[in-house]
């Protein structure tokens, strides 16, 4: 994930927590804060030590980055996101994580409705 796609500063992350809206399912919590005029969305990932060892935590983070890479066209660009992984995420594979994150982003109403490519293939 490119540097400009990441939220790294603690002050910015705290701003997302305080002023953003939160949406959750069993596996993930997503905080979304609208940033008008931003060229591209930015994300911050949080995976607690309670979820497992470093290998497990890094795998979850890799999966989350890949999900956002694949959903890049479908996610609104003028938002900052903080994604917090919950305990059930440790036992999930990539496709399960992608489905779960997509579900939370739909709840947050930050996914574009451009899913017409699926219906045109039928």
- What characterizes the major β-sheet? 4 strands, mixed
The structural class is alpha+beta
CATH class: Alpha Beta
Return residue spans where pLDDT drops below 50 for at least 5 consecutive residues: 116-122
According to CATH, what is the topology? Ribosomal Protein S5, domain 2
Order of helices and strands: HEEEHEHH
N-C termini distance? 33 Å
Task: Give the percentage of residues in beta strands.
Answer: 15-25%
* CATH architecture group name: 2-Layer Sandwich
Number of strands: 4
Mean pLDDT: 87
Annotate the secondary structure layout:
Layout: H1 10-19, E1 21-24, E2 28-34, E3 42-47, H2 54-70, E4 79-85, H3 94-107, H4 116-120
Parallel strand pairs: 3-4
Antiparallel strand pairs: 1-2, 2-4
Overview of this protein structure:
- The protein has four helices and four strands.
- Helix 2 (54-70) crosses helix 3 (94-107).
- The chain is of the alpha+beta class and 122 residues long.
- Strand 3, helix 2 and strand 4 form a beta-alpha-beta unit.
- It has a four-stranded mixed β-sheet, with helices on both faces.
Supply the key terms.
Ribosomal Protein S5, domain 2, disordered C terminus, 4 strands, alpha+beta, 122 residues, 4-stranded mixed beta sheet
Task: Please sum up the structure shown.
Helices cover 38% and strands 20% of the residues. By secondary structure, the protein is an alpha+beta fold.
């Amino acid at each position: 994930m490119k540097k400009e796609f990441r939220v790294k500063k603690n002050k910015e992350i705290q701003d997302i927590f305080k002023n953003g809206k939160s949406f959750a399912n069993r596996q993930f919590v997503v905080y979304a804060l609208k940033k008008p005029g931003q060229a591209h969305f930015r994300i911050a990932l949080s995976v607690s030590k309670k979820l497992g060892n470093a290998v497990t935590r890094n795998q979850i983070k890799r999966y989350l980055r890949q999900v956002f890479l694949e959903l890049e066209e479908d996610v609104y660009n003028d938002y900052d996101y903080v994604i917090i992984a919950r305990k059930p995420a440790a036992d999930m594979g990539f496709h399960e994580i992608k489905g779960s994150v997509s579900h939370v982003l739909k709840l947050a109403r930050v996914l574009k409705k451009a899913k017409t490519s699926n219906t045109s293939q039928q």
